[in-house]
């Protein structure tokens, strides 16, 4: 067991070393198309964290707005049961946890909105403080919802999560109460977020992509779309998939 763990750790370290070499030789960018309330996007969170660690500063989050605005809805009992069945399938396939707390406190609670608009605005707000915090905030929002059972359509909940992510990174300037007010009613933040979503949707139309998550790897003038096993197989699989493309590009 220890030998296998040692080999696995060596492989991960080697892949990160090769990633740095290939980044210097072959500049590229990674764009991740997602929605904060997408269960399959949560399934790809370990892959995203691995890519962010292997290629710091390269990853750009592209909010699709899938479940915002006209895509938002009341979380009815019927929709909640549909979501839970889909979530159980995701857990069986990927190992990502969807807890009893999430089912009872979010899906079955009543009066809950299925609306990713507030989460998209929270992500944009923290990105404005430090772009490096956006990916960790997305993961924290997902864990708060699917594991802790928090309603991540609520501005106050999102603001507390964002302030915690910032504090953990040594950023102490994010006030949760002020941020909650911005998420709920700041016109400039809403406009910025709407602009990001519009740009993402244009890019998805150009790619012919209709769903999320999707990862676009651009090397020079060429783009490569990664999805499926490349995103749901964890950090090492995602890093390896990107490296294969870089080697062939």
TrEMBL record:
Database matches in InterPro entries: Thioredoxin-like_sf (IPR036249)
CDD domains, alphabetized: DsbA_FrnE_like
Protein name as it appears in the record: DsbA family protein
Organism: Burkholderia mallei (strain NCTC 10229)
